[in-house]
Design brief:
The structure holds two protein chains of two kinds.
Chain A (H helix, E strand, L loop, with lengths): L10 H8 L2 H34 L15 H11 L10 H17 L5 E3 L2 E2 L6 H9 L1 H12 L3 H32 L4 H6 L27 H15 L11 H4 L9 H26 L15 H4 L3 H23 L7 H31 L4
Antiparallel strand pairs in A: 1-2
Chain B lengths: L11 H4 L1 H7 L7 E5 L11 E7 L2 E8 L7 H7 L2 H9 L6 H16 L5 H30 L3 H21 L8 E2 L2 E2 L7 H24 L2 H7 L7 H6 L5 H5 L6 H4 L25 H25 L21 E9 L2 E9 L8 E5 L1 H6 L2 H4 L5 H11 L3 H5 L1
Antiparallel strand pairs in B: 1-2, 2-3, 4-5, 6-7, 7-8
Helix pairs in contact in B: 4-5, 5-6, 6-7, 6-13, 6-16, 7-8, 8-13, 13-16
The chains are: A mainly alpha, B mainly alpha.
Chain lengths: 371, 398
């Protein structure tokens, strides 16, 4: 049994949960506040600025300094909107849908390691939990689409469900590669194994980013790419945004939504974007571990590790992937439904299976040979 | 009520699975889906009534008329010159080409010779307009497929054209620049230099735009072999412009029924070569437009060189004081960015108003192929087909 006490201790979250009810309420509140702030700034504002940069525009620049208050203004506008429920809609499903979509994305935050000292729930099946709880989102999407009683929404919902369910398979295979390399499903331990610190002796090999799983196996990069592509599809992001393809389905499953319900769906999209970005960074890019190496007397790796630096690194890596998501979105056209399924079942899944097999062989005979 | 015979019960093997589903009432019905008039892919106010089987389109019927503005009736009530601004509003993305065709018709009735310099001016402005129109066509097509960025890149380049034309005649889209017998203003000083400068700037941008879309694997996958329009069908439906050339028919009125100074100009009629695209598919139509951008650049460059310099030139010299053509009728046609723009004008010789004007919009004929192209495709493909037809609803409904 590994002894990870030297690498992570979950001290912040343990301290919070010792506070009793107040602490237990604070624990989920932290990611919630984070999602709100991140969705406002990195999400909406960032996306506008990134797309503006790519499209040779300026982006929001009037409201507040550099347009920083633009998203606040948008939220205020959305709050003031009348909460319209179409008369033909199934009221219960229509109201419940956005909530479930958001809960599905948000519940996964419980197992995201934000720092060596902070994790919502130190689950020994963390990755498994995250993959499975996100599937609830599908139910919410179907409720939105069906409850709207609109043919376009239904199309969007059906497409979305088909897509998300299909892409869970290559995503699962890719995650399996990372999990096999770690030998554990616990998010904190997966991250700790990539820190370069020997759990038993507490010594740091100082190699920095070479310890990350993506460089630890000849096929890890395949799994990494497969998971990245699948994560785009699972978040319904371009080029897989066919469920909400604005030129085909108007807005897909949330065509009929307005005001705060719309904001909720929007928030869920950004929440799940960050969630998959964190999962991919934990599985393949070391989570909260510093990528900097120790070079002789410059102990860059040792200096940049620790609880506070951990927060920085995980946010940095997560936001970097968010940026890549945006970059892809504003560059590529959209695939068609059948092409999307082709990519999933005939390209990603076989490669994912091959990656799983090779990783297994590699782990058994090369990286951690059986003694 | 007629007596319905009780169907005989048969086994699953006898019937086959489909019939079992039908018998048990589990068969799926076709769904009627109304696409538009408020739908982002219809480029305006077109309504397409789709009968779909799941996501597959079984039947598509375009309903038009939401933008009908009674052009033909208006034209009967107005003097010839007063009709020109109305022609602007038909295919509003290429107003210069529309008004040019109308003016050519009236000039033909009046038997006016237009000064040579004016002819070159008209070619330059309408080819500039063709570039701006094709930019919109190409990149809104990208928008239909889901590529947002090329659209804004094109808007940036189009802005330069609009600025040039605004400088020329004060309007950005609906110009009323070409008059019967002349144009409203001579080129301002330095205008030709600015146009040359723009072309120099624009050529690399056109190639960049070409690479951004036409070398994108997803874009090709989405458009290749979709909505193939065979040349015979295209001709039977009266298609014209890029729609017809996309099917491999080398037909361009500037070359085949030449008007103005086009016979003196060197340019190619772009037809797909069938290397990257299947002839007649959406990608071919798109490639034709893409290629025509550079052809238009070539035409303008030649015009700038060949245009006679006449200091103190009066663009109104040949403009008649009163347009009162003798009794007669004429049909003129010109190659618009979207195809053949034709006017059939009858003058009764009694007044300054035409007896009858019939406008033939290219988009209308091109759109009529939609029921032919759509069946069997997915809804996403229908969007791609509709985008490749490149309709302007003002031109469809007039």
């Amino acid at each position: 049994m590994n002894n990870f006490a030297a690498i992570f201790d979950n001290s912040w979250s343990n301290w919070l949960s010792d506070l009793g009810i107040a602490g237990l309420l604070l624990l989920p509140a932290i990611p919630l506040v984070f999602i709100a702030v991140y969705a406002l700034y990195a999400g909406v504002y960032g996306e506008r600025k990134v797309s503006a940069f790519m499209q040779d525009r300026i982006g929001p620049n009037e409201t507040g300094k550099w347009g920083l208050l633009q998203t606040i203004a948008d939220i205020l506008k959305l709050i003031q909107k009348e909460d319209v429920i179409p008369s033909a809609a199934d009221k219960l499903l229509f109201v419940m849908g956005p909530a479930i979509v958001f809960v599905g994305a948000f519940a996964a935050y419980a197992v995201l390691p934000f720092s060596p000292s902070f994790i919502g729930a130190h689950l020994n099946v963390g990755v498994y939990y995250a993959v499975s709880i996100v599937s609830i989102e599908v139910v919410g999407i179907l409720m939105c689409g069906w409850g709207s009683n609109n043919k376009w929404s239904l199309f969007g919902a059906v497409r979305s469900v088909a897509q998300v369910v299909s892409y869970e398979i290559p995503a699962g295979l890719a995650i399996l590669c990372g999990v096999m390399m770690a030998g554990t499903l616990n998010m904190q331990e997966i991250a700790a194994l990539q820190s370069g610190i020997n759990p038993n002796t507490g010594e740091n090999n100082g190699l920095g980013l070479l310890n990350f799983f993506i460089f630890q196996s000849p096929v890890a990069w395949i799994a990494f790419i497969i998971y990245f592509i699948s994560s785009l599809a699972e978040c319904n992001r371009a080029p897989f945004d066919i469920p909400e393809a604005e030129s085909e389905l108007v807005a897909g499953y949330f065509t009929e939504y307005g005001g705060m319900k719309f904001a909720m769906i929007f928030l869920a999209e950004y929440a799940s974007m960050f969630m998959v970005s964190v999962i991919i960074s934990v599985l393949f890019l070391g989570g909260w571990c510093s990528p900097l190496p120790n070079i002789g007397p410059a102990m860059l790796n040792t200096w940049t590790n620790g609880p506070i630096w951990g927060v920085f690194w995980i946010l940095f890596k997560g936001l970097f992937f968010i940026f890549v998501h945006m970059w892809v979105r504003w560059t590529l056209p959209r695939l068609r439904v059948d092409q999307l399924m082709y990519l999933c079942w005939k390209v990603l899944t076989p490669f994912g299976m091959a990656a799983v097999l090779i990783t297994a062989v590699w782990e058994m005979y090369v990286r951690n040979p059986i003694k | 009520m007629a007596e319905v015979a009780e169907p005989q019960r048969m086994s699953v093997a006898q019937l086959g699975m489909t019939n079992v589903l039908i018998e048990q009432g589990l068969d799926t019905d076709h769904m009627v889906l109304s696409m538009g008039p408020q739908h982002p892919a219809t480029h305006g106010v077109l309504r397409v009534e789709l009968v779909t089987d799941g996501e597959i389109v079984v039947k598509a019927t375009p309903y038009m008329g939401y933008l009908h503005r009674c052009f033909e009736k208006h034209a009967e009530a107005l003097e010839y010159q007063m009709t020109i601004p109305y022609t602007d509003r038909m295919d509003y993305l290429s107003a210069m080409n529309n008004e040019w065709a109308f003016c050519m018709g009236v000039e033909k009735l009046l038997k006016i010779e237009v000064p040579r310099r004016v002819e070159f001016m008209r070619v330059i402005v309408s080819e500039l307009n063709r570039i701006s129109s094709h930019l919109i066509a190409i990149t809104t097509y990208g928008l239909d497929i889901g590529a947002f960025t090329p659209f804004l890149h094109a808007m940036r380049d189009r802005e330069h054209i609009l600025n040039l034309l605004e400088w020329l005649c004060g309007a950005r889209m609906l110009y009323n620049y070409i008059w019967v017998g002349g144009v409203s203003h001579d080129f301002p000083p330095k205008f030709k230099e600015r146009v040359a400068e723009f072309l120099k700037y624009y050529k690399p941008q056109a190639i960049e735009l070409h690479n951004l879309l036409n070398e994108n694997e997803i874009f090709i996958q989405r458009t290749r072999n979709i909505g193939v329009l065979p040349p015979e069908v295209a001709i039977n439906y009266g298609c014209s412009g890029p729609m017809l050339r996309g099917s491999g028919v080398k037909w361009d009125l500037r070359r085949d029924d030449p008007y103005s100074v086009y016979p003196e100009l060197e340019f190619d009629v772009v037809v797909p070569d069938g290397r990257t695209s299947v002839i007649g598919d959406c990608l071919s139509r798109h490639l034709v437009r893409s290629g025509e951008l550079l052809e238009s650049v070539k035409i303008i460059e030649q015009c700038l060189d060949m245009m006679p310099e006449e200091p103190g030139f009066d663009p109104h010299a040949a403009v008649p004081k009163r347009v009162k053509p003798p009794a007669g009728e004429t049909y003129v046609r010109a190659e618009n960015p979207r195809g053949e723009m034709g006017y059939y004008i009858i003058a009764d010789g009694k007044g300054t108003k035409p007896y009858r004007v019939k406008a033939r919009g290219a988009s209308f004929c091109n759109l009529s192929t939609l029921p032919e192209l759509a069946p069997g495709n997915l809804i996403s493909d229908l969007v791609a087909i509709l985008g490749s037809i490149d309709i302007v609803l003002g031109d469809v409904d007039r």
